[in-house]
Write a structure and sequence with these properties.
The protein has 375 residues and is an all-alpha fold. 52% of the residues lie in helices and 2% in strands. It starts with a helix and ends in a 12-residue tail after the last helix.
């Protein structure tokens, strides 16, 4: 009588070395018969399609809820294939918000994108340090302008590298808004130079025209920052960084309001008496902290958000590296474990003490012999 294969183990891999998993859903197939259906999604092992490893925030393809021809449920099947009921071909379905990733893994893990984030971090730090250093009174207006120009150049260059075309979503108007927002940040060095040249200038038509042009450029640059905050919020939300996205949304709404209020208050700050105390070095430090405090909070929020984005990119690079080298590490581990399993320990064997020796009476061990004397 033939013995059933489940008792002989025929057709099943060795359970000790079985590390199979369903390539469609990732369910472990350890201990199952080779070629069996996955108990999670029902995909046969022989028909499983090889797929690249996906990161947790990567968009996942899903099959339609039901077949468009016969209405049979397609849940748990591969993203694309044929209906098991009628044989009609179906295509994967994706949620609308994940139709195309705004920041694909290739861009997120690229050195160019991370370098751009690093430039923006440098620009924010320079601007923050310059604002704090202005209370010391040892910095000249020329030094202030030079440092702010460097900070604005780092900011604009970082935006050019960190706002890729994938954020447009294939829409022309989004592309135009993104490009105009990036170009508007190149006006900051000109604005700082114009503001510096207006200090101590006498009144006249040329001064009035220069002040008007500088004001217009300043308004355009602020509007560009609002657009940039919106794009960064969209990218952060696509990476499932909700708190970071909320901070960018807050800055997109709060920054224009602060600029409007600050422009109305700071203009008469040097001519009013009583409320605004004026000294030889300029505005009173306490009043300046109150007025400039929201700007410092803005820079700190930007710095925190950019650091989180950079950390996300570095973490993605590490995960991708671990995934790429996983097969090599598993093979090395198997080889190391296989060299130790089933091997007897080598070394000198301890023989029992002979009968009648001094150790015999102390230890109480009874030596066993292959040849026992006959009774």
């Amino acid at each position: 009588m033939a013995i059933h294969e489940r008792f002989t183990g025929a057709g099943s891999p060795d359970p000790l070395s079985d590390e199979r998993s369903c390539e469609a859903c990732g369910y472990e197939l350890k201990g199952l018969k080779a070629g069996a259906n996955c108990p999670e999604c029902g995909t046969p092992e022989s028909q499983a399609v090889e797929r690249e490893p996906e990161l947790p925030w990567s968009p996942r393809e899903q099959p339609p809820a039901k077949c468009a021809d016969c209405g049979h449920s397609l849940r748990g099947l591969l993203p694309s294939g044929t209906c098991p009921e009628c044989g009609e071909t179906y295509r994967p379905r994706r949620p609308y918000r994940n139709q195309e990733p705004l920041l694909p893994d290739v861009i997120l893990e690229s050195l160019q994108w991370r370098f751009g984030i690093g430039l923006m971090i440098s620009g924010v730090i320079l601007a923050l340090l310059m604002q704090i250093s202005s209370f010391g009174g040892s910095l000249t207006a020329q030094t202030n302008v030079i440092v702010m120009i460097l900070a604005s150049l780092a900011w604009a260059s970082g935006l050019y590298l960190s706002l890729p075309a994938s954020l447009d979503g294939g829409q022309l108007h989004m592309k135009v808004i993104r490009l105009l927002s990036i170009v508007s940040q190149g006006l900051w060095p000109i604005i700082f130079i114009g503001s510096w040249s207006l200090q101590g200038s006498s009144t006249g038509w040329s001064v009035a025209i220069l002040k008007l042009i500088t004001t217009i450029w300043f308004v355009l640059a602020v509007i560009g920052i609002v657009g940039i905050m919106c794009f960064l919020s969209m990218a952060s939300k696509d990476l499932y960084m909700r708190r970071c996205s909320s901070r960018f949304q807050l800055l997109a709404v709060g920054l224009p309001l602060y600029v409007i209020v600050a422009s109305l208050i700071l203009s008469p700050a040097y001519i009013m008496s009583g409320l605004f105390i004026q000294s030889e070095s300029g505005m009173n430090p306490v009043i300046k902290v109150i007025l400039v405090g929201p700007w410092w909070i803005t820079l700190l929020l930007l710095l925190l958000s950019f650091l989180q984005l950079l950390n996300k990119a570095n973490w993605s690079v590490r995960i991708r590296g671990n995934m790429d080298t996983r097969s090599e590490r598993v093979a090395a581990k198997r080889e190391a474990m296989g060299a130790q399993v089933g091997q007897a320990k080598s070394g000198p064997k301890v023989e029992p003490p002979p009968a009648g020796s001094p150790h015999w009476d102390e230890s109480g061990d009874i030596p066993l012999s292959d040849t026992d004397p006959a009774d």
